[in-house]
Amino acid sequence: MFELLKAGGILMVPIVACSILALAIVLERFWSLRASRVAPPQSINELWRWIKKKELNGRKLKALQGSSPLGRVLAGGLINAKHGREVMKESIEHEASQVIHELERFLNPLGTIATITPLLGLLGTVIGMIKVFAEIQLAGVGNAGNLAGGISEALITTAAGLSVAIPALICHRYFIRRVDELVVNMEQEAIKLVEVVHGDREIDVEGA
Q1: What is the pTM for the complete model shown?
Q2: 5 in Cβ contact with 35 (< 8 Å)
């Protein structure tokens, strides 16, 4: 592997660095964007039971706020529920904007990696071909061994760049879609909370 990287030239260094960074981001996002972490059903059902039994207090609100990103959004609305529907909605939207920003954390760098690694590979291809033509100019085309280094450098960097970019792009698209699904779920729960608190909807929770 080291010989392969060495044959790819100096541009293999940033490509390998991008691959390590992309892998770290992908693993972190898979862990952080789990539905059981962002919007755990048990915490939400417990909130509905607290509301139905009129057991909601400051201590339980604080526990809800620290339980999950969705709990943080709902707690932000409940804290200001006494000020009316519009203020409650604004509080939810304000908290949700911060939560969404955190859910999208590292996705821009991952998208950047997916964009620049093919360009790094292309740059390596250009540099490799320049070396090939330089060898041809100096020694002609009779000795294929003199040309092999430049050609291999061109091919290796291109392949390496694409090998990093393709999985990074797939994961970036997947995480964007995953965040969208989680946001829709949080919006539905927030709307339900506003309607329940202001008497427009009955609580219907299994086991509540």
Answers
A1: 0.83
A2: no
